[in-house]
Amino acid sequence: MMQSVPKALVPGRSCGSCSLCCVLPEIEVFDKPANEPCRHCASGGGCTAYADRPATCRDFYCLWRTDESLPDAWDPSQSGMMLYAQGAQLTLLVSPDVGEPWREDRYRAELSRRAEMLTSRGGYLVIYRGDEVSVFKG
Ligand code: SF4
Ligand code: SF4
Question: Is 40 in the pocket of ligand 2 (CB under 6 A)?
Protein backbone atom coordinates (compact mmCIF):
# COMPACT_ATOMS: atom_id res chain seq x y z
CA MET A 1 0.00 0.00 0.00
CA MET A 2 2.68 2.46 -1.08
CA GLN A 3 1.36 3.78 -4.35
CA SER A 4 0.67 7.50 -4.70
CA VAL A 5 -2.77 8.76 -5.65
CA PRO A 6 -3.13 8.43 -9.41
CA LYS A 7 -4.26 11.33 -11.57
CA ALA A 8 -7.10 9.22 -12.90
CA LEU A 9 -8.79 5.96 -12.24
CA VAL A 10 -9.86 3.66 -15.05
CA PRO A 11 -13.45 4.52 -16.01
CA GLY A 12 -15.95 1.73 -15.46
CA ARG A 13 -13.90 -0.09 -12.83
CA SER A 14 -14.72 0.05 -9.13
CA CYS A 15 -13.68 -1.78 -6.00
CA GLY A 16 -17.24 -3.00 -5.44
CA SER A 17 -17.18 -5.81 -2.90
CA CYS A 18 -13.43 -6.36 -3.23
CA SER A 19 -11.33 -5.89 -0.12
CA LEU A 20 -8.15 -7.75 -1.10
CA CYS A 21 -5.97 -4.72 -0.34
CA CYS A 22 -7.38 -4.71 3.22
CA VAL A 23 -6.51 -8.39 3.68
CA LEU A 24 -3.44 -9.49 1.70
CA PRO A 25 -0.76 -6.84 2.40
CA GLU A 26 1.10 -6.28 5.61
CA ILE A 27 0.10 -2.80 6.87
CA GLU A 28 2.58 -1.41 9.37
CA VAL A 29 0.44 1.46 10.62
CA PHE A 30 -2.09 -1.08 11.95
CA ASP A 31 0.45 -3.76 12.88
CA LYS A 32 -1.52 -5.84 10.44
CA PRO A 33 0.20 -9.03 9.29
CA ALA A 34 -0.15 -10.20 5.70
CA ASN A 35 -3.10 -12.40 4.77
CA GLU A 36 -5.31 -11.34 7.68
CA PRO A 37 -8.20 -8.90 7.47
CA CYS A 38 -7.57 -5.42 8.84
CA ARG A 39 -9.32 -4.94 12.17
CA HIS A 40 -11.42 -2.23 10.48
CA CYS A 41 -12.85 -4.55 7.83
CA ALA A 42 -16.62 -4.57 8.17
CA SER A 43 -18.25 -7.98 8.33
CA GLY A 44 -20.39 -7.31 5.26
CA GLY A 45 -17.55 -5.67 3.33
CA GLY A 46 -16.25 -2.11 3.46
CA CYS A 47 -14.34 -0.23 6.12
CA THR A 48 -15.64 0.71 9.57
CA ALA A 49 -13.04 3.49 9.77
CA TYR A 50 -13.61 4.82 6.26
CA ALA A 51 -13.89 8.52 7.19
CA ASP A 52 -10.75 8.38 9.34
CA ARG A 53 -8.71 5.83 7.40
CA PRO A 54 -5.05 6.78 7.17
CA ALA A 55 -3.27 8.07 4.06
CA THR A 56 -1.87 4.58 3.56
CA CYS A 57 -5.40 3.53 2.68
CA ARG A 58 -6.64 6.74 1.08
CA ASP A 59 -3.75 6.85 -1.35
CA PHE A 60 -3.81 3.25 -2.45
CA TYR A 61 -5.24 1.77 -5.60
CA CYS A 62 -4.15 -1.47 -7.17
CA LEU A 63 -3.09 -1.47 -10.82
CA TRP A 64 -6.43 -2.82 -11.97
CA ARG A 65 -7.97 0.48 -10.87
CA THR A 66 -5.29 2.69 -12.37
CA ASP A 67 -3.93 0.98 -15.48
CA GLU A 68 -6.40 0.41 -18.27
CA SER A 69 -3.91 -1.79 -20.12
CA LEU A 70 -4.35 -4.41 -17.40
CA PRO A 71 -7.12 -6.64 -18.78
CA ASP A 72 -10.48 -7.06 -17.08
CA ALA A 73 -9.57 -10.64 -16.11
CA TRP A 74 -7.30 -9.09 -13.47
CA ASP A 75 -10.24 -7.76 -11.46
CA PRO A 76 -8.99 -8.73 -7.97
CA SER A 77 -12.46 -9.74 -6.82
CA GLN A 78 -12.53 -12.32 -9.62
CA SER A 79 -8.90 -13.37 -9.91
CA GLY A 80 -7.98 -13.42 -6.22
CA MET A 81 -4.82 -11.52 -7.11
CA MET A 82 -3.81 -7.87 -6.83
CA LEU A 83 -0.94 -6.14 -8.61
CA TYR A 84 0.65 -2.91 -7.44
CA ALA A 85 3.69 -0.86 -8.28
CA GLN A 86 6.36 0.17 -5.80
CA GLY A 87 9.20 2.04 -7.43
CA ALA A 88 10.90 -0.28 -9.92
CA GLN A 89 9.16 -3.28 -8.38
CA LEU A 90 5.85 -4.77 -9.32
CA THR A 91 4.26 -6.88 -6.62
CA LEU A 92 1.64 -9.57 -7.11
CA LEU A 93 -0.21 -10.60 -3.96
CA VAL A 94 -2.19 -13.83 -4.30
CA SER A 95 -4.92 -15.08 -1.99
CA PRO A 96 -3.67 -18.29 -0.39
CA ASP A 97 -6.98 -20.01 -1.17
CA VAL A 98 -7.05 -19.53 -4.96
CA GLY A 99 -4.16 -21.78 -5.95
CA GLU A 100 -1.69 -20.42 -8.50
CA PRO A 101 -3.82 -18.63 -11.10
CA TRP A 102 -0.90 -16.53 -12.34
CA ARG A 103 0.38 -19.68 -14.06
CA GLU A 104 -2.65 -19.70 -16.38
CA ASP A 105 -1.82 -18.51 -19.89
CA ARG A 106 -4.14 -15.47 -19.68
CA TYR A 107 -2.30 -14.13 -16.63
CA ARG A 108 1.17 -15.44 -17.34
CA ALA A 109 1.40 -13.68 -20.71
CA GLU A 110 0.60 -10.33 -19.09
CA LEU A 111 3.11 -10.92 -16.29
CA SER A 112 5.80 -11.91 -18.79
CA ARG A 113 5.21 -8.72 -20.76
CA ARG A 114 5.44 -6.57 -17.67
CA ALA A 115 8.40 -8.44 -16.20
CA GLU A 116 10.29 -7.95 -19.45
CA MET A 117 9.67 -4.19 -19.35
CA LEU A 118 10.70 -4.04 -15.68
CA THR A 119 13.90 -5.97 -16.26
CA SER A 120 14.96 -3.53 -18.96
CA ARG A 121 14.64 -0.77 -16.34
CA GLY A 122 16.38 -2.68 -13.57
CA GLY A 123 13.15 -3.68 -11.87
CA TYR A 124 11.54 -7.02 -11.12
CA LEU A 125 8.22 -8.67 -10.37
CA VAL A 126 7.73 -10.41 -7.03
CA ILE A 127 4.92 -12.84 -6.19
CA TYR A 128 3.70 -13.36 -2.64
CA ARG A 129 1.29 -16.16 -1.83
CA GLY A 130 0.94 -17.06 1.83
CA ASP A 131 4.48 -17.71 3.08
CA GLU A 132 5.84 -18.25 -0.43
CA VAL A 133 7.83 -15.50 -2.12
CA SER A 134 9.29 -15.75 -5.60
CA VAL A 135 10.64 -13.52 -8.34
CA PHE A 136 8.68 -14.04 -11.55
CA LYS A 137 10.97 -15.47 -14.22
CA GLY A 138 8.50 -15.71 -17.08
S1 SF4 B 1 -7.47 -4.64 -4.42
FE2 SF4 B 1 -7.90 -3.06 -5.98
S3 SF4 B 1 -10.04 -3.44 -6.61
FE4 SF4 B 1 -9.69 -4.53 -4.64
S5 SF4 B 1 -10.38 -3.08 -3.06
FE6 SF4 B 1 -8.16 -2.78 -3.35
S7 SF4 B 1 -7.97 -1.12 -4.86
FE8 SF4 B 1 -10.06 -1.90 -4.97
S1 SF4 C 1 -8.53 0.97 7.61
FE2 SF4 C 1 -10.18 0.43 6.21
S3 SF4 C 1 -9.38 0.86 4.15
FE4 SF4 C 1 -7.62 0.74 5.57
S5 SF4 C 1 -6.92 -1.42 5.47
FE6 SF4 C 1 -8.35 -1.23 7.18
S7 SF4 C 1 -10.35 -1.82 6.33
FE8 SF4 C 1 -8.99 -1.32 4.61
Answer: yes
Give the distance (Å) from ligand 1 centre to CA of residue 93: 12
- Rounded Cα distance, 115 and 134, in Å: 13
Q: Which of 5, 14, 18 to mutate to test the pocket of ligand 1 (most atoms within 8 A of CB)?
A: 18
Residues 6+ away with beta carbon under 8 Å from 60: 1, 2, 3, 21, 84
Distance, in Å, from the CA atom of 20 to the CA atom of 92, rounded to the nearest integer, reads: 12
What are 59-81's pLDDT values in tens digits? Answer: 999 999 999 999 999 999 999 99
Q: Which ligand is nearest to the CA of 82?
A: 1
Per-residue pLDDT tens over the stretch 42-54: 988 899 999 999 9
- Residue-range domain boundaries for the chain: 20-135
